[in-house]
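To the team - acetoacetyl-coenzyme A complex, inputs and output below.
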Amino acid sequence: MDFELTEEQKQIRDLAREFAQKEIAPIASEYDARGEFPRATIKKMGELGLMGIEIPTEYGGAGLDTLCYVLAMEEISKVDASHGTIMSVNNSLFCYGLYKFGDQAQKEKYLVPVASGAKIGAYSLTEPQSGSDAGNMQTLAVAAGDSYVINGRKSWVTSGPVADFIILFAMVRPELKHKGTSAFMIDTAQPGFARGKVEPKLGIRASATCELFFDDYRVAARERVGQDGDGFKIAMSILDAGRIGIAAQALGIAQAAFEASVKYAKEREAFGSKIGDFQAIQWMLADMATRIEAARLLVYNAALKKTRGEKYTRDAAMAKLYASEVASFAADCAIQIHGGMGYSKELPIERYYRDARITRIYEGTSEIQRTIIARETLKQRA
Ligand code: CAA
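Output:
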């Protein structure tokens, strides 16, 4: 593994860092408190090329590699994980998915505006009865001439309240279970589409999440992404890419918690010394540093494999599993090191703690990541 960063990788990391510190840091806690979608900063991120980092420039993206994406995700999420969530869903779940599986007309119509940040994209797989068991979806797309009529209810759709376009997964032939699913491009301005209330969440509160309702929504067959029956595999393949983004987001949260803790340990005094002089604090910092470094290696490794065109299902699952657990661990240690101040809303530490928690749940729980890692490992050894 060679992690010597190229000039291009350093540039995008520095650009994301500078933008996050200048534009996001001053507003992050207010938007979190209000649970408000940060439209203005997301628009600026689009203008900077941060909403379609891996997408070729002819389709509105920045034309960079996966490590560039990871480095930028980490910098943005270090300052605010809500912006990280919005960025990750737009980049991986929508843009990368459409780039990999969409046809030329779909790319021109939907990818160009979303990758350039002019429009917002989302991904809709989960339903009230099917979260981890994603193949058990009930939303139906019935073929009717040269179109499909969609009816059903989707849940936990990140950016659902604001998305212009959504990649939707639905059943076309329920008797075939996951082999009877298809993917469709949904235009949220069309009739038959409605959004539910915005979910009140523990963390990533500035990223908006809601249910979606399809009531005789008619979609032309040309808006189907891939072939009938390919939906589940497309959904899984896109999630492989998404999990690298969430792993990078978790890494950013962990790094933020760590940096704040080191700073505080050098400043705060107790019993006549800086608290960083005490072994109790030192051991927490040592464990945080070690686990963050290990998580970073896993995330970069998954990114490099994706860039090289190798299979990375297992690597992405490992990166997401480990980095998300490190984010929770680091945020918990940061609160402990800061004591009462860590629990106060005057500092962002309690936000890191709340934001870290979702990374162990969305885009596949830690339990699902372990299942994937075990299955892929057993396949390799067979
Ligand atoms: N890439 C391509 N194909 C894949 C694949 C992958 N990564 N993983 C599985 N497949 C294929 C399999 O090869 C299999 O193909 P065949 O039918 O040809 O044999 C098919 O898909 C079915 O695979 P499984 O038998 O493994 O399916 P399963 O029902 O046992 O489920 C699972 C596997 C890993 C548990 C899967 O259901 C899963 O990942 N669940 C979690 C879903 C998830 O992450 N949801 C989050 C949604 S997004 C979100 O969080 C909200 C948001 O907006 C951010």
